[in-house]
Specification:
- This protein is mainly beta and 548 residues long.
- The chain has two domains: 33-138, membrane protein fhac (Ubiquitin-like (UB roll)); 142-545, Porin, CATH 2.40.160.
- The protein contains five helices and 27 strands.
- It has helices spanning 2-14, 37-42, 68-76, 82-86, 99-110; strands at residues 46-55, 115-126, 129-138, 142-151, 154-163, 171-179, 184-192, 201-209, 212-221, 230-247, 250-273, 276-293, 307-320, 323-326, 336-339, 343-351, 361-373, 378-391, 394-409, 414-426, 434-436, 450-452, 454-465, 474-488, 501-512, 520-528, 539-545.
- The strands form four sheets. It has a 20-stranded antiparallel β-sheet, with helices on one face. A three-stranded mixed β-sheet has the order 1-3-2, covered by helices on one side. It has a two-stranded antiparallel sheet with strand order 14-15.
- The two termini are 28 Å apart.
Length: 548
């Protein structure tokens, strides 16, 4: 029966057809009758009226969505206020027309979890004045939730109540209770991306956990746009938790970690110059980690060493203005914004005993990323990070990570996807080892099946996008996949990894179109091809991820 079900699922995935998305032209003027954006800029056009088309969750003009239930949902939903949208635009009435600012404002709007999509376009041009329409479509944001997921042979359950667009003001509140492999947790979250109708974001979280408490507060004015001239902020993080060492997916030891992190920073920039942005920053960090045994628990042979790093730092970022918008890559039927330009970031700080640190240390971090090709056909996205410390003249906690994502659009309905991830560690802190298994790659194996200092993971997927749109609530896709990877180096428990591991599988993907957020629901069946005989022949996974 199981084999028959698997065969049915395979046939279903293989028979999936592509999806095409029709866009209704609601412009008051035909696009052909308007000058091109470059022509509007060359003519020195000024922005006139800005019209806001704020669409509710369901389109009642569509007969497929005009029913009693969806009409009731629209009546109960408060559409995002015009002022919230206006505060996120990089242009206003009387400003010179700029196609770049319209595109960047679209990206800013699409970052909000309460919008399904956002478009900005000229709709009328008379004399030297161009009128603009800003169109947004809301998502349902009051979300009572009861979820159960399974990955790596472990279950996770959550009960929650969240509102991600309180009274249409863009404010998010969330209450949740979670029971997973690590802990039980009751938490409250608050987030306002435009606190006080400004570009300042405020985030706050308090969690009462079975192994301690978490307090996380962030007040930050980011570089919200390419032309933003300054940034500043402060963060506070205080957490006590129990950490577990694993061996072949089994819990073998545990310890308690008391973490305190406080930061403050200021950044400045000249903005966008000749398609490039340069940003500088300075700040101060207090980073303390204390470790001890858990009463009644099994102690590891070695505990992580306590750390207290107190240091000023300086940073630099170089950013190229190059973005692409497309669909059906990591989401299903939604506009996706991909950064394709060159980005380089580096920061360096010096911890000293005179500042209150427990050692003299140089702390450094570098990041580099770039996209190649075009998202419309073939593209490669590369990224890397290198970080670590020099403690009293010796290297510590050094880690080099490399990542490559390859997208090849075979047709409107099919996408070939490959991701390669690798990391190499040197003299890692015992609380900073890498792992593979379950929801962390290698879907056919138990959670955290391999632990060590370095790792490699490759995933190949053939993705399918369908036009199946059940109840007009979620779009459906599917994937056939294979994973291969391994970990190198001795783990914190002293165990040695078992070598290369492989798995294959099939899965369904559900992309909600009415609920807030951009998560994709994964339902996977994975078959391990290696490992010890105790591993189940079939791994069943249900989880929510940020991409396909």
């Amino acid at each position: 029966m199981i084999r028959a079900g698997i065969r049915t699922l395979i046939v279903f995935v293989l028979m999936m057809t592509g999806v095409t998305f029709a866009q209704t032209d609601t412009s008051t003027v035909s696009a052909q009758s308007l000058p091109k954006p470059a022509e509007l800029e060359a003519a020195g056009a000024l922005i006139g009226d800005i019209v806001y088309d704020r669409q509710n969750v369901f389109d009642l003009d569509n007969p497929k969505e005009n029913n009693a239930l969806y009409r009731l949902a629209n009546r109960w939903h408060l559409v995002t206020r015009e002022s919230v949208i206006r505060n996120q635009l990089l242009f206003g009435t009387g400003d010179p027309f700029s196609a770049r600012l319209l595109e960047e404002s679209e990206r800013l709007l699409r970052q909000n979890v309460y919008f399904y999509d956002a478009t900005i376009e000229p709709i009328r041009y008379e004399g030297d004045v161009v009128d603009i329409r800003v169109s947004t479509r809301d998502l349902w944001t009051l979300m009572p939730g009861l979820s159960v997921s399974r990955s790596g042979g472990k279950n996770r359950s959550r009960v929650s109540l969240s509102e991600r667009n309180l009274l249409g003001r863009g404010v998010s509140l969330r209450f949740s209770y979670t029971d997973d492999v690590d802990r039980e947790s009751a938490s409250f979250q608050f987030f306002d991306r435009n606190f006080g109708n400004s570009w300042v974001s405020l985030f706050g979280e308090y969690s009462n956990n079975s192994d301690g408490d978490t307090v996380d507060v962030r007040l930050i004015r980011p570089f919200y746009a390419l032309d933003a001239k300054w940034s500043a902020g402060s963060t506070l993080f205080d957490e006590t938790r129990t950490e577990t060492f694993y061996d072949a997916g089994n819990e073998v030891a545990e310890y308690s970690a008391d973490l305190d992190l406080y930061t403050a920073f200021f950044g400045w920039s000249r903005g966008l110059r000749n398609d490039w942005v340069r940003r500088w920053s300075v700040g101060f960090v207090y980073d303390s980690s204390e470790f001890k045994g858990v009463p009644g628990g099994v102690l590891p042979s070695l505990l992580p060493v306590d750390r207290k790093l107190v240091y000023p730092f300086a940073g630099f970022e170089l950013l190229e203005d190059r973005y692409e918008a497309t669909a059906n890559r990591d989401q299903i039927g939604r506009t996706e914004d991909f950064y394709m330009g060159l980005r380089f970031f580096t920061s360096v700080g010096y911890a000293a005993k005179v500042f209150g640190a427990d050692r003299d240390a140089l702390i450094y971090r570098m990041e580099l990323s770039r996209g190649f090709g075009s998202m419309e056909r073939k593209s490669v996205l590369l990224s890397s990070t290198f970080s670590g410390r020099i403690d009293d003249g010796s290297s510590a906690n050094q880690a080099l990570t490399l990542s490559a994502r390859f997208y090849n659009q075979i047709s409107d309905k099919r996408l070939f996807f490959v991701t390669l991830e690798g990391s190499a560690g040197n003299n890692l802190d015992l609380d900073n080892f890498v792992d593979l298994g379950g929801d962390n790659g290698l879907r056919g194996y138990p959670l955290r099946y391999q632990i060590g200092g370095s790792k490699f993971l490759a995933t190949i997927e053939h993705r399918y996008f369908t036009d199946w749109y059940p109840f007009r609530l979620a779009r459906v896709g599917g994937a056939i996949f294979a994973d291969v990877g391994r970990v190198w180096g001795q783990g914190p428990t002293g165990a040695r990894p078992q070598g290369w591991l492989r798995d294959v599988g099939i899965g369904l993907r559900l992309g909600p179109t009415r609920a807030s957020g951009r998560d994709v629901i994964h339902i996977d069946i994975a078959f391990p091809l290696d490992g010890d005989p105790t591993i189940d022949d079939v791994q069943f996974l249900i989880e929510s991820k940020g991409s396909f």
